[in-house]
Amino acid sequence: MPPRSRRLYLKARRRRHNKIGICIFDLTPVWQDGGFFVFTGRLYRSVNTAAARGSMSEKFDLVVIGGGSGGVRAARVSAQLGAKVAIVEEYRYGGTCVIRGCVPKKLFVYASRFGDLFDVAPSFGWTVDASFDWPTLLANKDKEIDRLERIYETLLDGSGVTIFKARAKVTGPNAVELSTGEQLEAERILIATGGAPFKPDIEGSDLGITSNEAFHLQSLPRTILIEGGGYIAVEFATIFAGLGVDTTLVYRRDRILRGFDHDVRDGLEDALRERGVRFRYGYHISKLRKDGEGVCVSFSHGEEATFDAVMFATGRHPNTGDLGLDTAGVQLDQTGAVVVDEYSRSSVPSIYAVGDVTGRAALTPVAIREGAAFAQTVYNNTPTTVPYHLIPTAVFSEPEIGTVGMSEEDAAERYRSIDVYLTRFRPMMNTLSDRQEKMMLKLITETDTGRILGCHILGPGAGEMIQLVAIPLGMGGTMADFNHTIAVHPTAAEELVTFKSPSYRVVDGEKCNP
Predict the structure, then answer these.
(1) How far is CA 258 from CA 165, 229, 458, 485, in A?
(2) Per-residue pLDDT tens digits for 359-373
(3) What is the pLDDT of residue 302?
(4) Which CATH architecture has domain 56-196+316-390?
(5) Average pLDDT of every residue of the chain
(6) Which of 284, 389, 484, 489 is catalytic?
């Protein structure tokens, strides 16, 4: 039998900084004809020998704390611009989005949508006899996340960034201590530690899960209660309901997706109800206790009910605990977020922060843009800011949401007169079946100029469409520009360029005919 795979430690010269270091490889023996072995494998990690010894402090131009999307982008671009960069991550490279956020979530959403496809398949002549296996989905998801993590590490290494796997603590304006005992000196420090799921401070809260644990459940629950009304709550309601779980959503307010356009909010709720999701508005969970194999929930209005699982989707908080930022004099706001200026600099001139940890806009593409803007500002002498006023976003619910710009409510408050273009229709996929669900497209314009103030889409492909719509909105596009565009037929998106006249007008907050 060939020997087992083993990890081999080799001395090597780092290409970018020309330093002697330790490269660690995972090697697998492969039997070859002739009776010998060839070892194949991949770089597992590389660390500097001084760091490995822990006997001295190494100096860097930049130390990035946090290996998520924002931190990795900042580290790579800064290194490419000539800075000597180190990055420190205590868990896995890729951050929340890649490891336990956007990416695995969307894979789960894809899995949950097959039921809808099977429902309409007979109308297209298909006979489908399908079953779902949760362990298969988990295993394939894990395999993909492992692949993406390796890509992140490879990109960092290829950019000449020194990689550390440890917990970091800021011990001064220019000093970082690692949990391994290593000491790093830095001209600048970048905090990119992201956020963490919030659990309410109630009795029995440890019996509830968050989005972190939802990706690793050993088996699907038969019933689940999800508390919350934002992105995460409605996306996981979509996932669990689509996979056959009896799903209930409880939210202390009166409607989901606060801040979104009202037509999007109402449309999604109606569609989720059609998929069997139940809504409980106006109260919240006050206590959890074990009830056999399930969890008994006490609600704030006095009712009790038992579910197989309870999930908290009640928001996220900045991940700044025990980072030593107070020691360094970094100002935090009341939520624990790092207070920064338009160039991501904190109250300490040598310490910066990007991503969710700043509490600005908790979206991965924003963190990436902030990381790149930081590098351009600091290491390319090109002061760069991020356009927070126009951020396109998608909610991967079922149906999907894509939105950019102002809601009708916001536009009506800001402008005396706005025009609203609105259409609803059955997606072509549903027209051969008795499925009645409709998609919705909505444009909001300023009456006097025709400038498009907002676009809101509910239905298949909404996320893909809104990315493209965001481009003309950012350029100040008008309804005349859209009307000048030739439609692609037959598509849902063609409705955006074929509106003949406004559906209605809002003047001084009052709805009227155009």
Answers:
(1) 38, 8, 16, 33
(2) 999 999 999 999 999
(3) 95
(4) 3-Layer(bba) Sandwich (3.50)
(5) 90
(6) 489
Q: CA angle 346-352-353, nearest 5°?
A: 95
Q: Which helix (H) or strand (E) element contains residue 44?
A: strand 36-48
On the question of a cis peptide bond just before residue 427, with omega within 30 degrees of 0, the verdict is no
Q: Which two tokens stand for residue 505?
A: 């007008």
Give residue 48's pLDDT band: very low, low, confident or very high (50, 70, 90): very low
Cα first-last separation, the chain: 81
pLDDT confidence of residue 57: 78
**Cβ-contact 378, 395 below 8 angstroms:** no
DSSP labels, 326-371: HHHT--B-TTSPBP--TTSB-SSTTEEE-GGGGTS---HHHHHHHH
Question: Could you tell me which CATH class the domain 205-314 is placed in?
Answer: alpha beta
Please check the confidence at residue 419 and state whether its pLDDT lies above 50. Answer: yes
Q: How many helices (H) and strands (E) does the chain have?
A: 13, 26
CATH class for the domain made up of 399-512: alpha beta
389 as an active site residue: the answer is no
Query: Predicted confidence band at 56 (pLDDT cuts at 50, 70, 90)?
Result: low
Average pLDDT over residues 315-325: 94
295 has a pLDDT exceeding 80: yes
Cα 494 to Cα 395, 425, 441, 487, distances in angstroms: 21, 12, 10, 5
